[in-house]
User: Fold this.
Amino acid sequence: MDYQLIWGLLIAFSVFAYVTLDGFDLGIGILFPFEPGAENRGKMMNAVAPIWDGNETWLVLGGGGLYAAFPQAYSLLMTAFYIPVITMLLALVFRGVAFEFRFKSTKHQKHWDFAFSTGSLIAAAMQGAMLGAFIEGIDVENGAFVGGPFDWVSPFSIFCASAVVVGYALLGAGWLIMKIEGPLQDHLRTLTKPAILWMTVNLGVVSLMTSYVNPAYAERWFSFPNIIYLAPIPILTTGLLVWLWRAAQHRERTIFGITLAIFFLCYLGFGITLYPNIVPPTIDFRSAAAPDNSLAFMLVGAAIMLPIIIGYTAYAYYVFRGKIDDEGYH
Assistant:
C-alpha cells in the first residue's frame, strides 16, 4: 500500500472538510456588521449553534495528521507561519468565547457581537494569507526554514486573504438563506450580488498572479497538452459563477451548493498546481513523510476514527436540518 499517498489524501480531505464546514460559520460572523439588528443576529448565530464547534474537529484532524504523518512539513510550515497560526487560533478562541457569552450577557451583547465578528474575520484572513504564502513558497535550506517572520505578508497573500474572506461570507450567506425565512433572508440575498462580484474579481486576480509566482505553475497549466486536460476547471468555475449570479435572487439551496462546488474546483486547482510538493517549492510529500511502519500503524486508528467523525457530523446536520424560527429549529 502507498501509505504516503493515502495520508496525503486524508490530510487534503480533512483540510477541505474544515474549509467548507467551518467556512460557512466563519462567514456568518463576517456578515454580522451588515445586520445591525440584535434579534436577527441571534437568528444568524442560532443557525449554526448546534454544529459550529463540531466543524472545527477537522482543523484538529488536519493539523494533527500533518504533525504525525509529515513531521518535516509540519515543522517547516509552523515555523514559517508561526505568527498567522497563533493569530488565527487566538481569533478562533476569542470567537468561541463570544459565541457562548453572547446569549448569556445581554448587557454586553454588542461587545460580544463585535468579538464574534472580529474573530471570524481575522481567522478567515489569516487562513487566506497563509494560503497565499504557501503557494508562493517557503524558503528552506538544509531542511530548515531560513525566511523571516513576516514572509507570509505580500500583495499575493493579501489578495488570497481577501478571496477567502469573501468566499466564506458567501458560504455563510448561502447557509443562512437555506435556514432562515422572511425579511432577513431577503436582506441576505441583497448581500450575495456584491459578494459574488468581489469573489469573481479576487479569483481572477489570484489565478493570474499564481502563474507569475512560480514559472513551474504556469508551465503546468499552460503547456501542451496540459492546457487541454486542465481547461475544464476554469471553464466550469466560470460557468458556476454565472449560474450563482443568476440563482442568487431565486433559489435557496442552490446558492450554498454552487459556492461549495466553486470551493471544490478552486481546491482541486490548488492541488494540481502544487502536486507533489507539500512544502513548495522544493519538498514533496514523500520526502517529508514519516516511516511507512508509523504511517501504517496510524492508519489503523484513522480507519476507525474517520468514519465515526463523518457519522456524527452527518447525524448532527440531519437532526438540525430545516428552517429555524425565533425559538429554534422546526
About this structure: The chain has one domain: 3-321. The mean pLDDT is 90.
